[in-house]
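tool_log.txt
---
The assistant was asked to compare two proteins side by side. It first ran the structure predictor on the initial sequence, then on the second. Raw inputs and outputs are pasted verbatim so the downstream comparison step can read them without reformatting.
(1)
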Amino acid sequence: AVGGISDRMATFLQGLVHCPRKSARQIRPLSLLYSSEQQHACTKHGTKIASSKVSPISCYWRTGDPVFHASLISRSFAARSRGSFSGFKCTTVCTSVGAPADFAKMTASMKVQQLRELMADSSVAVDAYIIPSEDAHLSEYVADCFSRRVYISGFTGSAGIVAVTKDQALLWTDGRYFLQAENQLDSSCWTLMRAGIPGTPSLADWLAQYLPEGARIGVDPMVLSLALAKQIKAKIETKKQQLVPIPENLVDKVWGDERPPAPQSVAFEHPVQYAGLTVQQKVASIREQIVEAGADVLAVTALDEIAWLLNMRGADVPYNPVLICFAIVTPDNLYLYVDSSKVEGIRPIWGTLVTLRPYEAFIDDVSKIASSGKRFLIDPAKSTLAIVNAVPAEQVIEKPSPVVQAKAIKNDAELNGMRQAHIRDGVALAKFLCWLEGTVASDRQITEVEVAEHLEAYRREQTGFVSPSFPTIAGSGANGAIIHYQAEPSSCAVLSTNELFLLDSGAQYRDGTTDVTRTLHFGSPSQRQRECFTRVLKGHISLATAVFPNGITGWAVDILARRSLWSVGLDYRHGTGHGVGAFLNVHEGPQSISQRPIDVPLVPGMVVSNEPGYYEDGSFGIRIENLIIVRKAETPNNFGNVGYLGFETLTLVPIQRKMIDLSILNPEEAAWIDSYHRAVLDTIGPFLSGQELAWLRDACAPLGAGVGVGAGQANAAAGVAA
C-alpha cells in the first residue's frame, strides 16, 4: 500500500475507466502524492486524482475522458461493468477546470490562504504579492514547474498577472481570455480584472490606488520584467510604497512537493541548411552590434533567442522547441548556463566558442562580470529585475537585444523552410478537412477534443513534424467566441451541423512553424454569420494585399483589417497579427500588427500572422488566419526613394466558400479569393489523390460555382470567376 491505499486500489485507479463518448485510452502509471489536507493526489499530465484518507473513500480522477466521482461503498474491485464498478457508483461531473466544482473551490481558497500566511510571516511582511505568468526567461509558454500563476489561480490562459493582498486576489488578463477566465476562476476568492476595458485600472494603478501609504509589495525578481517593474515603481512612489524583492518564490513554497520537476529534454542541432548561418557567423554579428550599442556584454535570457543564436533546439517547454538556459555573450567568450548533460550531443557544432556553466550560476556570474566594470546591454522587455539589480546602474545600457531583430528577419534558408513547411501543413489540413466534413455529414458524433487529436495525427504523417506549435483551439458554437478556448474532455462540445466551428491550430516542423485558423459551417449558415464572416474576410484580404512604404509599423496597417467591421459597428478584442519564428516560438517579436503603438517597422523577411476576427459571446466566433511574409513590392513609382513593401501569403488552406456573402465583396476581393484558391490547388493538389483530391478541387472551385450561394450572387460573380 502507498499512504494507506491498497495495491488493488492503485491497480483500479490505473485501470480502464469507461467513457460514454469514445473508446477509453491507455492510462499511464500514476504517482501518489500527499497534501496538507490529508488528501492523496495522483497526477497524470497535470490532472489530479484525489481521495480522502478515511473510509468510505471519495475519489476524483480523469483519464482524458469525463471526470467521475466514485464513492466507495465496499472495498471489492472484482467486477467492472459499463459505467459502474463493483462497490462504486459513478456519475459524470462536467466542469471547466476538469474537477468537481466543490473540490476546485476548496483548493483555490486553500492555496490563496497559504500564500497569505507566507506573506504575513515576519521574514517577508508584505501587503501584496505579484505573480506574473512568465518564468525567469519571460516566456509566454512556460514549463509546468514554472506555471505559478496557473497553479495559484486555476486560470490556464497564456496571458495574465495576479496580485494577492490580505483580503483580495485579482487576476488581470486581456480580451482574448475574458470568457475563459470567468469560467476557470473561483469567484468566491478571485476577482477578474478585464484589462483594456474602460474603467479597469492597470495593475500598477490599482496597487497605488488601493494599497495604503508605505505598503510593501512583494515580487520574485527573477520573474518580473524590468519594464513592468519600472511601470509599477513609477505609480507607487507617489504613495511611498515599495517593491520588495523576495529571493524565494512564495508560490513555490505553497506548491511544495507537488511542484513538477524541471524538464530534462536533450538539445539537438538545427542544421545550417535550415538556419542559413553558422553559430560562429551569428555570434560574430551579434558581438559587432553589442559594440555598436556602446556595451561590452549581452545577457540573453529569452529561450528562443538562445536557441536561434546557437542553432539548437530542445523540448523543455510545451509547443516551443527550446531548452531552458541562460547565455552571456562577452567579447571573447559565450557562456551557456545549462545542465551540461542536456547539450553533450550538440557541443561539436560550437567548437571552443561556448563555455558551459551551471544554470544556477547565472545571476552570480552577471554580478561578477559587472564587478570588473563591464557595461551590460540590457533589453528592458527581455530582462528581469534580478539581472538589473546585479549590475550597477552606471554600467547598464538599455537597448533592444540585437538577437531579437536578427531572429525576426528570416534569411533565405529560413524563408524557404517556412514555405516548405506550409506546403506539407496544407496537405495535412486538406486531408483532415476532407475527413472532418465527411465525418460530420455522416452523423457520427465527434467532440472538439477528438478534432484536435485527429488533426495532430494527420500532421504527424508529414515529414519533419515535431509537435503542435500551440494547443489547438477547436471551438464549436458558443465556444468559438472564447478567443483562446481550450476544450476539455470533461466539458467539450460535440460538433454540429447547426453551429459555426472555429479551428485555430499550428505545427512545428524541422524547417518551419505554422499557424492557421479557419471557420467552418457543416450545414447552412445564417445570413448574420455569413455577413460577419465576409466582413472578417474583407479585412483579411485588405491586409494581405496592402502596399506601404518602408518604415511603416504594424499598428499603422492594423486599421486595414478592421475597416469593414468598423463600417457596421463591429470589432474584435485582439491584435491582428503576431510575429512567428522559424521552427521556434509561434509568437515572437518585436513585430506585430495591432492597435498598440509598438514602434517597430515591418521589415522584409519578417513573418507575421493575418488574423482578423469577430465574436458574439454565447453564440459563435469567426477568425480567418494565414501567415504572411513581409517582402519588397514592385510599384510603378517610388516616392521619396524609400522603397515599398507588401506581403506574400504562406498558408495554403481553402477558405470555406459557403460562408461568403458575395454581395458584400467587391470584384478585386472576389478575384483575390479565386487566385488564392488556385494557388492552394496547384500547390497542394499534386500531393493528394482520390476522395481527398476531389474534396480539394471542390473547396477551391471559383466563387459562384454554387456552393451554398444564391443564384443571383452566382451570376454576379460569374465575370469575376472567369
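(2)
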Amino acid sequence: MFQLVGYDEVFNGEVAGLWKKASGADESGDAHGISRVVAIMGPQSSGKSTIMNRLFGTDFFTMDEDQGRYQVTQGIWIGFDRNTGTAVIDLEGTDSRERGEDAATFERKSALFALAISEVLIINLWTQDVGRLNASNMLLLRTVLEQDLVLFHDKKSAPLRTKLLFLFRDHDMATPVPQLSNVMNEDLQGIWKQITEGTVHSESQLDEFFDLQFYALPHKVLMPNEFDAACLELRANFQKEDMFKKSYDRQLSLDGFPVFAAGVWETIRRDRELDLPAQRELVAVVRCDEFKREALEAAEEGLAVVKEAISTDDDTKLAAVGGDIVEIVSRAFEVFDENAQRYPEKASSKRAELEASLYALGTGIFDLHADKVMRQLLEAFGARLKSLTSWNGFGKDLEGFVTTATDKFDSLCATNVDYLEPEYQGKREQLSSSIELQARRWRDAAVKSSLQQLQLHYGSSFAPPCAAILDAAAKHVDDVWALVAQLSHKTYRTVKDEASTRFAAEGLALPPDVERSAMNSLKLNCDEETLRQIHGLIGSPSLFLTRVKQCFFDQFRNDANGLPRVWGPDDDITEAYERALEVSVAVANALSHVNRFDLDEPEEIKGSVKHFDDECYMEQIKASLQKEAEAAFAESKRSQEQMKAQMMGIQGQLPVWLVAALILLGFDEAVWVLKNPLLLILCVVLTAVGYVGYVLNIHVFLRDRFRRDMNSVLLRTKRALDQIAPDAPAADASVSSSISMN
C-alpha cells in the first residue's frame, strides 16, 4: 500500500518503485496477477477504507472511533489483493472539514481520476442520503461524468465502459433495495440527459458508457453479523468473472500503470474549468449547511431535555412529550428560515434536508416515549392477568383491562402532527397486538390447565366403576365393552358440561373456533384417558394371568350363589371344570382386545386395540390357565375319590352281629326317647343335621381343619420344648411322631 497523490495534489514521483514493491512486480515491472482496478469514493468517515479492507484484504488506515471523527485518508492511496489480482484505489473522503472551501476542487479531480482509471468505481453513500443532491454526491457525479465525456471519450471510437457500483451503507431494511436503486437510476439518467444535450453524445445512452449496480450493507455496529455476511457475499461477487467484463478493460498493460496514472492526473489538473465552480453556489451551499447545522444542534439540545423527561414516571410530563417535540422542531425551522432567506437558490433544498433530519430526531424521541408508555402499560396488564386466580369471569375482566390500557396510552401519546401520527398509530397497533398476545397466552394456559383438570376428573370418575365391570366380566362377558362404553359416555357427558361452562362467555369467553378446538382436545384427551385407564386396570401379562385364574377359581370353587363349594361323592366335577374353563377363556379373549367407541355415541364402535402387542403373551396366559385349571380339577377329583373310599370303608367295618346287638341292647333307651317328646325332637334335629353334614361332606372339612389346628399346636409345642430342653431328643421324637400321625 502506498500514496499515489499527496494531500497537496502532487503525484507521487516514486510510484514506479513503490508499484514494483507493493504489487510484487519483477524487475521488468510486470505485475504478475494484477489484472484489474477498483476504486472507491464517498463522504469522509463513511467507512470506505474499512469496506475495502473487508472486500480485498488490504490494510488501508481506518479511523479510531475513540479519537472522534477526523480525516484519515489524505489524497489518493492504492493497495493490492493478490488473491484476486486486483489493484484497489482509496480516495480521500468528500465533504471534509479539513480542506474547507477548497475541498470541492480536489473532490472533483480525484473522482474523475478514479472514474478514468478504474474498471469498477464504488460510490459509497449513506442509505438515508439517497434522493438528496449533495449528500449523495450527485453534483460531484454530474461534473465528473461531464468532464469524463470531454476528456476520455471520442465519438468515433467505441465507448470506454465503467461499472458504477453504488454501495448503500447502514441499510435498515425499511426501504427495499430495488426502490433505492430506482431513485438513484432516475437521478443518474436525468444528469446524463442534461450533460449530453447539444453534444456529440446527445443520442447516446448512459448504459453505453456505464453499467450500474446497487448493493446494500447493514449497519456495522447495530447489525454486525448481517454486516459481516453481506461483506462476504460482496467479496464473493468480486471474485466472479461477470463483475469485470471485457468492455471494462482499459487496454493497458499494468506494468505501465505508473506512467498511465501520472498522465491521467496531469490531464485532469490542467483542465482549469474543473476548478471554477460558481462562487455563489459554493457560498450558498456552505452557509446553508452552517444554518442547518445550527438548527439541528439547537433541536438536539431541546430534545435532550425531553428525553430526560421520558425517563421519569410522571404522567403529566409524559403527556406533554408530544407537544414539546412539535414546539422544538418548529422553533428549529424558524431559526433556519430566518437565516437562509438570503440564499434562496439553496435554501429550499437545504430546508428539505433539515426537515428530514428534524423529523427523524423528533420521531426517534417520540418512539422512545411511546415505547416507555407501552412497556409500562404491558407490565401493568401482565400483573393484572397474573392476579386472576380463576377462569370465572375472565372475558369481562380482560375487556376491562384492554380498555384501561388503550385509554391511558391515548391520553399520554395521542398527537395530530402529520409526521408523528404514523408513529403513534403504529405504536397503538403494536400495543393492541401485545395485549392480545399476552391475553391469548394466559387464555391458552388456562385452557390447557382446564383440560388437564377435566381429564384427571374424568379418569378418577371413570376408573373405579370400570374396575368393577372388569372384575365382574365373567357375569357379562358378552356385554363387558358395551357396559364400559355406557360408563365412559356418562362420565364424559358430565365432564363435557363442566367444560362448556368454563369456556362460555361467563368464563374464559373463548372465540367459537378456539372453543371448538378445546372441546375436540377434551374429547381426544378423554378418549386417550379411557384407553389408559382400561389398559392399566387390565394390567401386565402377570396381572392378566392372575385375573383369568381368579375368574376360573371363582367359577370352579364357588356355587351359583358365590358360596364355597364342597364336592360331594355324586357331584359332576368335570362339568363344573369345563364350564369354569370356558368362562375364563371367554373373559381372557374379551379383555385381550380393548374396543374403542365414540364418547358421544357409545353404540358406535370405532375398532379395537390389542392389549398385548405380542400374541405370544396370550398363548402363554392360556397355557398357564389350562395348567392351573387341570391341577385344580385333579385335586378336586382326588378329594372326591378319597371321600367315596372312606364311606365304603366305614360301611364295610360294621359286622351284622354288632348291629343286632346294638338294636337289642338299645331297645329300652329307644322306647324311653320315643316316650319323651323333647328327646324325640332333639334326636330328629340331630339326625337331620347329621344327614345334611354327610351330604355336604362337612365331616371331611371338619376333620381336615382339626388336623391343621392340631399340627399347628404340636409345632408350637415342639418349639417351646426346644427352647426349654434343646438336648431332649425323646421329646422331639414324641412330638414329631404325633405330627406325622395326624
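---
observation on (2): The first strand starts at residue 2 and ends at 5. The first helix runs from residue 15 to 23.
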